[in-house]
Amino acid sequence: MSSVWTQLEPHLAGVEKPARYIGLELGAQRPVPGQGAVSWLLTYPDTYEIGLPNQGLQILYEILNERDDAVAERSYAPWGDLEAIMRRERIPLFSVDTHRPGRQFDVLAFNLSAELTYTNLLNCVDLAGVPVRAAERRPEHPLVAAGGHCTYNPEPLADFLDFVVLGDGEEVVAEITRVVGGWKAAGRTEGSRQAVLRELSHVEGVYVPSLYDVEYEPGGGRIRAITPRFADVPERVEKRTIADLAQWPYPKRQLVPLTEVVHDRLNVEVFRGCTRGCRFCQAGMITRPVRERPADQVRTMVADGLRRTGYDEVALTSLSTADFSGIERVVQGIVDDPASCGQVSVSLPSLRVDAFTVGIATQIQKARRTGLTFAPEAGTWRMRQIINKLIREEDLYGAVESAFSSGWRRVKLYFLTGLPSETDDDTLGILELARNCVEIGRSHTKGPSVKASVGGFVPKPFTPFQWFGQNTVDELGRKISLLRDAGRRAKGVQLTWHDPKASLVEGLASRGDRRLGPVIEQVWRQGGTFQEWSEHFRLDLWLSAMADHGLDVDWYVHRHRTEDEVLPWDHISAGLHKDFLWQDWQDALAEVGLPDCRWTPCYDCGACTGYGIEHVVASATPPAGGSQGTGQDLSTGHLPGAVPVALRPRPLAGARA
Ligand code: SF4
Fold first, then answer.
1. Helix count (H) and strand count (E) of the chain?
2. Best substitution site from 275, 463, 576, 581 to test ligand 1's pocket, by max atoms within 8 Å of Cβ?
3. According to the 3-state scheme, what is the secondary structure of 49-67?
């Protein structure tokens, strides 16, 4: 085992933020691989500040290092200044834990959370001294793998990845370790790389792109079929789902960085999955069913984590934290804990406005007011029915009232534009909502401010909107201009928006097929890394690479798909039946909402029924103020009765939706 530290260290004083590369965080490990142990380099293909807090990566880091047959270290994409030095001085990609060269690991495993990091993945593989194309790798090279939400359509990266892990990683990493360990023990002989990949394809949740053929319709264009090349390779690869989050109380030793990172606080995951059914939301669709962590375990993880890390802020994370059964009691328990001396603040990212109550507001502001963000996503009820974000204006105004009356002065709202069948009235409704929220604030505080952040909608695989043609850059730009013009007259509303050009490339990568591989490679070879970063984003590189490979951006991004089309990810399964998604798409176009199946009968989307698992929720009733599953008339948005505002205390128990 070697280290690049002596080569690297003299250069660190000359680069921006050298702490990105030294490791040594509280909670960091310096594992010594035992004889035959499989070594994983868990890599986040963006900067250290973005990648370090990633919970998925930290969970696997701990789980693998607890095993006798595996070790895991971490790596992050080096920023351009260090990359130039690394290339000049021939310093390979390294782990931040022991500074061991990336090429010495058995598996280079990437966490892919954003499509615009794809070129960084290639860059990291290349910096490790490993051929970027899977077909050119030899037995001595590590296996290059990826997991994370983007891998539900892994096809644009099919040329570069040896294997892909779909779904929850906690259990499957052990099975992969056993297979790779066998490969190592047998000496990684000539030709054995194909054999180990074939064996990995038998592990549930593992997809090996090179074992599938893709056939296109005559003259190119649509896919005709995607078929395994061997009889023992599955036709469809199912995602992995852990049934019981309580068995996985990770991370137990969250990393505490030496330098500033995003989300620099204790993070405790309170549940996984979401069945609210927002039709634009890939994360919600692919992580079904809902699995709550027992409230007692949340409290223990928070108390242990605060004591160990010294943080004075904890975020209770999930896709919609206010939906967690008994959230008020959990928050109250944290802020009232004598050990925290009234100094601990709680943030609840991903708050559903219809589940935010005065009670929650009062609890989380006890120690200190952290930012408050709500995501109504669309400006009109019509539009919110289409996207199935069934939040009434009263829900939003009630939540905002709770916030301002509890002492907040700033509220942030997230919206999308470019949604299916969106009209200018729908777009302008965004501003109307924001303006009304400012008005509510004025009755409680001087100078309230509402920040409305608007993103261009990008349709994602495994959502009902996967068939929708994304708005063009010009159309998104026009809608943003509409809002900007109207916003000039809206005092107290601060409008920000996402670059529509970046949304175009995100759309290209998220629904692209294997033919995009050479495009991604060309953009990377021409220097297009860190495409997530606006100052580095280069639309020109993407457009010229598409043209050079005879591919039509319009066809990939702006075209509506038909029901009969074979989608590039049809051989992957997130559990959801394709006909359920299609019906939900038709319901969207008919402006028909769909309730949350946690509290209504199952409508057989496939996420539970196909795997023999169930939702694990502690409350048999929806959370306070909920519009879904509460008897609301979904066609009008009006509730027959008063909106409940307090959670009922209930004992924890697994309950079926
Ligand atoms: S299978 Fe039924 S209960 Fe499970 S997530 Fe789908 S609709 Fe909900």
1. 20, 19
2. 275
3. HHHCCCHHHHHHHHHHHCC
Read off the pTM.
0.92
Tally of CA atoms within 13 A in the half-sphere of 203 that contains its CB: 26
Residue 357, pLDDT > 80, answer: no
Query: Of all atoms in ligand 1, which is nearest to the CA of residue 609?
Result: 1
Q: Which of 597, 613, 615, 617 to mutate for ligand 1's pocket (most ligand atoms within 8 Å of CB)?
A: 597
Q: Whose CA is nearest to atom 3 of ligand 1?
A: 602
Q: 603 C-alpha vs ligand 1 centroid, how far in Å?
A: 6
> Range with the lowest mean pLDDT among 42-56, 128-142, 526-540, 602-616?
602-616
Q: What is the DSSP string of 336-373?
A: H-GGGTT--EEE-SSB-GGG--HHHHHHHTTT-----E
Q: Quick check: CB of 657 below 6 Å from ligand 1?
A: yes
Rounded to whole angstroms, the Cα distance separating 620 from 630 reads 12
| Confidence category of residue 403, pLDDT binned at 50, 70, 90 | confident
Give one DSSP letter per residue of 587-636, joined into a string: HHHTT-----TTSS-----STTTTTT---BBS-SSPPTT--SSSS-BTTT
pLDDT at 366: 59
- Coil vs helix vs strand at 150: helix
User: Which residue in 115, 203, 205 sits closest to 157, CA to CA?
Assistant: 115
Does residue 608 line the site of ligand 1, with CB under 6 A?
A: yes
Atom 8 (ligand 1) nearest CA = 597
What would the pLDDT profile of 627-642 be if each residue is shown by its tens digit?
444 444 434 433 333 3
Mean pLDDT of 579-587: 97
Q: Which single residue is written with the structure tokens 């309580």? A: 246
Closest by Cα among 453, 458, 460 to 472: 458
Using a 6 Å cutoff on CB, does residue 290 contact ligand 1? no
Mean pLDDT of the chain: 90
pLDDT of 82 reads 98
